[in-house]
Write a structure and sequence with these properties.
The chain contains ten helices and four strands, in the order ααβαααααβαββαα. The protein is mainly α. The chain has a single domain, classed as Rhomboid-like (Rhomboid-like fold, Up-down Bundle). It is elongated.
């Protein structure tokens, strides 16, 4: 069994504590405080940019992410040290958030702009979105635009998946010949093939709005953003052999 490293252990403990807090205080309350809300949503707060990385939507969501963090995070931290490991971890989380929010904004703004073009002010639209109610006299097209905008306005993001994908990508660049496999598809594939294939699948699923395993509300572009960010950082450090750009352990 792989001996868990200190930073990975502490991250797992924080995630478990946050999950217990969600269960003890109530999911809606904890989500309102710490889950990542759409920035135009009145429930958005700046600390959610970080805290959402420690929130999870259920026990299996938590268990799978923490299992992956232990399995891939431990060998990565053993090589990089705690500071560089945390740099990749949080950078991947931020990269995941940026790409996923970018995709949400790309879908949200056309509906928002259509409502503004039809005569509603920005404040009126945000008021309708905050109450999830339209106003008298709206056409069917305006109602449809409002409903589509409301779905994105009310979306929340939780989980360490983006961070984990960054760590997985870093592990793959460090160990390209290592054989990896999905829990649901136990076929070992070399990391240098596995990770690009996984990113292609995630991108396709994100564009189609579906999951290969049938799950709903999976932030596929967050996975892609986390992997690209973590992979790029690890590639840059490996290219420079950690010399001029390494951090002290």
């Amino acid at each position: 069994m792989i001996r868990i490293t200190d930073t990975v252990k502490h991250l797992i403990i924080i995630n478990v504590i946050m999950f217990i807090g969600t269960m003890a205080i109530g999911g809606n309350t904890f989500y309102d405080w710490f889950a990542m809300h759409f920035p135009k949503n009145e429930d958005f707060s700046y600390w959610q940019i970080i805290t959402h990385m420690f929130m999870h939507g259920g026990f299996m969501h938590l268990a799978l992410n923490m299992f992956g963090l232990w399995m891939f995070g431990t060998p990565v931290e053993q090589v990089l040290g705690s500071k560089r490991f945390l740099f990749i971890y949080f950078s991947a989380g931020l990269g995941a958030l940026a790409l996923q929010l970018g995709e949400y904004y790309f879908r949200f703004m056309p509906y928002f702009n259509e409502l503004m073009a039809s005569g509603y002010s920005k404040s009126e639209i945000l008021q309708m979105l905050s109450t999830a109610r339209g106003v008298n006299g709206m056409s069917s097209i305006q109602h449809q635009n409002l409903q589509e905008a409301f779905y994105l306005y009310s979306v929340i993001m939780v989980g360490a998946s983006g961070c984990l994908m960054g760590i997985l990508a870093a592990f793959g660049i460090m160990n390209p010949e290592a054989r990896l496999m999905l829990i649901f598809l136990p076929i070992p594939v070399k990391a240098k093939y596995f990770i690009p294939a996984l990113l292609i699948i995630e991108t396709i699923m994100g564009l189609k709005g579906q999951s290969i395993f049938g799950g709903a509300n999976i932030a596929h572009f967050a996975h892609v953003g986390g992997a690209i960010t973590g992979g790029f950082i690890m590639w840059y450090w490996k290219k420079n052999q950690f010399n001029q750009n390494r951090w002290d352990l």
